[in-house]
Amino acid sequence: MAIRYPNGKKYSAPVNRSRISKSETFSNRGMTLEEDLNDTNAYYLSRGIAVIHKKPTPLQIVQVDYPKRSAAVIKEAYFKQPSTTDYNGVYRGRHIDFEAKETKNKTSFPLQNIHLHQIDHMKQVIAQQGICFIILRFTSLDEVYYLNAQHLIDFYEKQKSGRKSIPKADIAQLGYLIEQEFHPRIDYLKVVDLLYFQS
Length: 199
Prior knowledge:
- The protein is an alpha+beta fold and 199 residues long.
- It has 5 helices and 11 strands.
- The protein has helices at 33-46, 116-127, 149-157, 168-174, 189-197; strands at 2-4, 51-54, 59-68, 71-79, 87-91, 94-103, 108-110, 131-138, 143-148, 165-167, 176-178.
- The strands form 3 sheets. It has a 6-stranded mixed sheet with strand order 2-5-6-8-9-11.
- The radius of gyration is 18 Å and the shape is globular.
């Protein structure tokens, strides 16, 4: 199925992580960042900690094939509008809004994975006193970091001076390493508590 953005550009789905290999730790078990975050958010919701969900992406369906009466196959669709960030919700009375990205790169995070409309959205969330950040997974190192959205915005705006990525060393210095656990999988609210609620 071909899915396109409003400007006609073809959508490339995020690449899923490979299945479990002997070198992987028990903690990651071959799950994608999205699966881990969905599992974490389900944990928060089931215990009344927070209400945070992955945003659905509205699609305009253009072509559908009906190979059988009981089955329909979408052949072509377009995004109705550019996406903002992946997740949003509410925690302790504050709006939470964040993006989640994975990279196989061991030394930096490529800024080409972030789009201007996402940066603009993050700025708007910050202006309204929302809690906004990005969660980055370095898949080959199995490390997950929380990085405040303002730091991401600052790095993104430095692209004009030639910067094409955020060095991992800077992410480690400015961000917070999130330990991966069994439940919740990626307890990013620990960092939110530290930064916004002093707990």
